[in-house]
Design brief:
120 residues; five-stranded antiparallel sheet
Length: 120
C-alpha cells in the first residue's frame, strides 16, 4: 500500500522468502522510487479479492483479471517479465474468456493467440 487514505497500491511479486521484486515497470514496487505519483499506482476498485496467480504459477494479475492491453497494471507473465494481451481480439467478452482459460490452465498463451508485451 502506498497511500492508505486513497487506497493506492504498488505490486511486489517475489519468490517465497524473497525480497527482490521479480517484475519491474509501472505499478510495480521499486526501492529506487522515493515518491510515487498517481501514474505509478493502481486502485483496487470494489473487489476485495485483488492479487491472483494462475493455477500453473506462470501468470500474475495484481488487480483485476483482465488481459486487455489498456488495463493497468494488467496480467503479467512472471518468467518472461512481460505483460499479457490479446491484441487481435476487440470483443471484451472474448478477451475475458481467453484470460480465464489462460489462468485456469485450460489453454496456453499460444493456443489462445495471446501476445507478450514489453512494457519497459
Amino acid at each position: 500500500m502506498v497511500d492508505a487514505h486513497l487506497r493506492a497500491y504498488q505490486v511486489i511479486v517475489s519468490n517465497f522468502n524473497g525480497t527482490k521484486n521479480l517484475l519491474a515497470g509501472k505499478g510495480f514496487w521499486s526501492d529506487s522510487i522515493n515518491e510515487s505519483d498517481d501514474d505509478n499506482v493502481f486502485y483496487p476498485g470494489d473487489t476485495i479479492y485483488i492479487g491472483k496467480i494462475s493455477i500453473n504459477g506462470k501468470y500474475v494479475a495484481p488487480n483485476d483479471l483482465d488481459c486487455t492491453m489498456d488495463l493497468f497494471p494488467g496480467v503479467w507473465d512472471i518468467e518472461n517479465k512481460m505483460k499479457v494481451a490479446f491484441l487481435e481480439d476487440k470483443d471484451d467478452a472474448v478477451i475475458d474468456h481467453k484470460c480465464k482459460e489462460l489462468f485456469s490452465g485450460i489453454k496456453t498463451l499460444n493456443e489462445l493467440s495471446g501476445k507478450l508485451i514489453n512494457m519497459k
